[in-house]
Amino acid sequence: MIAQSFQYASPGTLAEAISMLDKYGEDAKVLSGGHSLIPMMKLRFANPEWLIDINGIPNLAHIKEEGGVIKIGALTREAEIEHSDLLKKYFPIFADVTKLIADPQVRNRGTVGGNLAHGDAANDHPAVMLALNATIVATGSNGERSIAIDEFFHGFYMTALEHGEILTEIQIPEPPAGTGSAYHKLERKVGDYATAGVAVQLTLDSKGVCTAAGFGLTNVNPVPLRASRSEKALVGKSITDETIAEAAKYASEDCSPSSDLRGSEEYKRAMVAVLVKRMIHKAVERISK
After folding, report:
1. Domain range 179-287, its CATH number among 3.30.390.50, 3.30.720.120, 3.30.465.10, 3.30.950.10
2. DSSP letters along 100-164, please?
3. What is the DSSP string of 39-91?
């Protein structure tokens, strides 16, 4: 199908873009990479009268370290994240996730901000940001505000972004020594949505005791899901076969997958447990490197 007709605007500043969103109200949508919005428009699931293209706005594409926080601009392309030396230094999980997002053509254009603002539990970055305890920065006519990742996803394609706000940055605390992270998803073919996916970040002390844990699950819940019981199963304990099995069991129980062409509910729960075990082992391996 072809999208219905619309008006196009390409503001040169963030203030101008926000002013346009305020002016056109619910008839306007923000365009960044477009890989989520444009297909929805073609299927007539989204019918904006105005597209506000923010790609010409400066200072929204960066990966930098400031005051113990890693800051990623909303217009940063997936390909830039995939090859960032700074992210590889602190978060090997990003090398995992970006190579599993669609294909190189999509990654050259798709943005991390658009991925998150879309609010789709089937996307990969929501689970990763939950595991990393990220903070979302939104900018509107009243200025900037910070949104904890656990408060960002509200429902099916629904986020905490208010009318007239634009997601402008993601902030992730720099991990302490002894931290490792990993992500993987099971997919039917390259570039497909996940049958199930798991993101893990772990911090171990010098004695091998887990002092912090983050778990995010992909496409096995209506809303991006933090596996809280899995985190609690590890914190304060050594990483053993028993504690890993417990964390895997909790994750498979606490998610709510739907049976579809990618698999039955039972199968998806089983795959969540398998992936949790594998990602814990992978994160621990990366700590020792």
Report:
1. 3.30.390.50
2. TSS-HHHHHH-BHHHHHHTT-TTSSHHHHHHHTT-EEEEEETTEEEEEEGGGTEEETTEESPPTT
3. HHHHTTS---SEEEE-TT-TT---EEEETTEEEEETT-BHHHHHT-HHHHHH-
Q: Is the alpha carbon torsion for 27, 30, 34, 37 positive or negative?
A: negative
Examine the pLDDT at 289 and tell me if it is beyond 60. no
How buried is residue 72: exposed, middle or buried, by Cβ count under 10 Å (0-12/13-18/19+)?
Answer: buried
User: 211: which residues sit within 8 A by CB, 6+ positions away?
Assistant: 178, 203, 204, 205, 235, 236
Q: What is the mean pLDDT of the chain?
A: 94
Is residue 102 pLDDT above 80, yes or no?
no
**Mean pLDDT across 236-246:** 98
Going by pLDDT thresholds of 50, 70 and 90, the confidence category of residue 105 is confident
Residues 78 and 107: beta-carbon distance below 8 Å: yes
CATH class assigned to 7-53 = alpha beta
Give percent above pLDDT 90 in the chain. Answer: 85
CATH 3.30.390.50 residue ranges for the chain: 179-287
